[in-house]
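Need residues for this backbone.
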């Protein structure tokens, strides 16, 4: 029995070996075939991402970006930084188109390392973002005054000329000049109301396009492009009627790192419109705002005009039909140093609001405000928000303003307000105070803002006491200065001592009264390409410090 059992077991083992050999042979042949199939697949056109993103395209709706997980890859992180520096072009102005949307640009996105996580030593968080319309601003302004001929090539007209060209320059009828509106929103319930107001109150809404950077917690916050009722039930809602003119780039709230980054993304959605407007996400517009603000812009007869101001409060200043109830407006002139993020920097205070001293045109001012800005579209091309400034809030206005000044732009306060701000005070106090802020995630990016502030101040020459080796110079030419004027010219003209961190007080006595406007606007170049500061030797001094104010001396000015 024992012998018979051993013989049976031996036979069974032989059968098992044969079966395993057959299985191994079959698996081997399958593996060879699979490898051959993969070998002949077409090469991928993009690198694998460390963070898996889902990009939802809802035609006539929005583009949403959110991160859902991490994927292991072998690619070097530096490769992604190179991607962010690859341009949409090399200075060639793209063909003007209208209508246009980033939803129609499948594949026209850059994979970039999230600047907040990168600043913390983690370059593995990758975002897919729209490419800049023109990636290299230096290729346009070339560190010198941009020619009027070149400026006229930037800006689309709603209808083309006889040859089909939408870039018609100033021959485009004013009512057909397109407007791109950029809004940065952080978990703001009023974002959709702001967009609604933009389209509903415009005289020519068909020439307006809105781009929103919508930083939300999905499932908790309402998306900026979501109408209150389904479009099938009420297609006349502005978010339904003009959905093809609304691009919403949705970002998970924990990736929010301040307004500079959010507005940088907004600049990336610009697509060659004639005018550019920037506002906050909680703003109400006046009736026919588009016609009004363009007429004010054109009244300056200055191609390099940027209309900018802090907005008046909405309460009591506009009726239910969109009519402004006031004839006053703020003007930007009250600015001084404050400390923060281990640096000292200039910060705007509350601005004086009064009936304009100068009538019939916007009034010249030294400073730019982020809350509201209106300009020609080439302002976005030449002065893009710096991608490498995470966790910056105070300071963004100095960065854009002074860089814009060096590229040749001039800032004006609008003569009339075309929109009003919902401040967290008075009737809106309780509701607005419930809106979260991006700094609820400050712990994730601790220290990133300090490094970014060193860079911000360094770029505009506001911290000469700091060794240049101490701050990041990545893409400095792209997000840096122009060659028309120097920051030092700005500081000496408006009484700013960047070494001792102090300002000449009472600058508003020079600005609000109209003295600056009357003294400087005569030096507007004959072709309208900005004020020629080479002919201005003015240096502001505090008129109340016991010395004679230098604005009283006409010998401080050179004649044309």
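Answer:
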């Amino acid at each position: 029995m024992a012998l018979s059992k051993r013989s049976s077991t031996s036979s069974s083992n032989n059968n098992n070996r044969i079966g395993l050999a057959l299985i191994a042979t079959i698996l081997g042949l399958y593996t060879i075939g699979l490898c051959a199939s993969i070998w002949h697949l077409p090469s991928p056109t993009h690198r694998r991402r460390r963070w898996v993103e889902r990009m939802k395209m809802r035609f006539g709706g929005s583009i949403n970006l959110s991160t859902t997980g991490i994927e292991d890859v072998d690619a070097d992180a530096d490769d992604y930084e190179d991607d962010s520096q690859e341009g949409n072009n090399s200075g060639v102005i793209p063909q003007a188109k209208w209508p246009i949307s980033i939803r129609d640009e499948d594949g026209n996105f850059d994979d970039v390392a999230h600047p907040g996580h990168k600043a913390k030593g983690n370059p593995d968080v990758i975002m897919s973002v729209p490419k800049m319309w023109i990636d290299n601003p230096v290729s346009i302004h070339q560190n010198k005054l941009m020619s009027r001929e070149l400026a006229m090539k930037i800006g689309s007209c709603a209808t083309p000329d006889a040859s089909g060209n939408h870039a018609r320059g100033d021959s485009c009828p004013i009512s057909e000049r397109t407007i791109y509106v950029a809004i940065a929103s952080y978990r703001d319930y009023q974002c959709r109301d702001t967009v609604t107001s933009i389209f509903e109150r415009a005289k020519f809404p068909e020439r307006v396009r809105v781009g929103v950077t919508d930083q939300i917690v999905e499932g908790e916050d309402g998306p900026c492009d979501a109408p209150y009722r389904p479009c099938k039930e009420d297609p006349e809602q502005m978010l339904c009627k003009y959905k093809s003119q609304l691009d919403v780039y949705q970002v998970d709230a924990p990736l929010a790192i301040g307004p500079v980054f959010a507005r940088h993304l907004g600049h990336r959605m610009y697509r060659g419109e004639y005018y550019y407007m920037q506002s906050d996400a909680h703003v109400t517009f006046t009736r026919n705002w588009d016609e009004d603000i363009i007429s004010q812009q054109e009244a300056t007869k200055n191609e390099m005009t940027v209309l900018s101001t802090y907005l008046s409060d909405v309460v009591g200043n506009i009726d239910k039909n969109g009519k402004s109830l006031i004839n006053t407006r703020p003007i930007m002139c009250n600015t001084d140093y404050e400390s923060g993020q281990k640096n000292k920097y200039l910060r705007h205070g509350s601005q004086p609001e009064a009936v304009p001293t100068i009538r019939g045109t916007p009034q010249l001012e030294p400073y730019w405000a982020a809350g509201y800005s209106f300009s020609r579209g080439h302002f976005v091309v030449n002065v893009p928000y710096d991608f490498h400034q995470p966790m910056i809030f105070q300071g963004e206005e100095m960065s854009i303003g002074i860089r814009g000044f060096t590229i040749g732009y001039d800032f004006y306060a609008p003569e009339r307000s075309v929109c009003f701000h919902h401040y967290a005070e008075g009737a809106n106090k309780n509701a607005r105070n419930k809106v979260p802020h991006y700094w609820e995630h400050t712990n994730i990016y601790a220290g990133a803002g300090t490094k970014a502030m060193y860079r911000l101040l360094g770029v505009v020459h506001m911290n000469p006491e700091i060794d240049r080796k101490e701050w990041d110079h990545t893409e400095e030419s792209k997000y840096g200065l122009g060659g028309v004027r120097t920051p030092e010219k700005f500081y000496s003209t408006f009484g700013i001592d960047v070494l001792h961190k102090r300002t000449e007080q009472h600058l508003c006595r020079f600005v609000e009264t109209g003295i600056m406007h009357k003294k400087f606007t005569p030096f507007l170049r004959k072709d309208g390409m900005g004020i020629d500061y080479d002919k201005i030797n003015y240096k502001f001094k505090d008129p109340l410090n016991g010395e004679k104010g230098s604005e009283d001396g006409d010998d401080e000015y050179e004649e044309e």
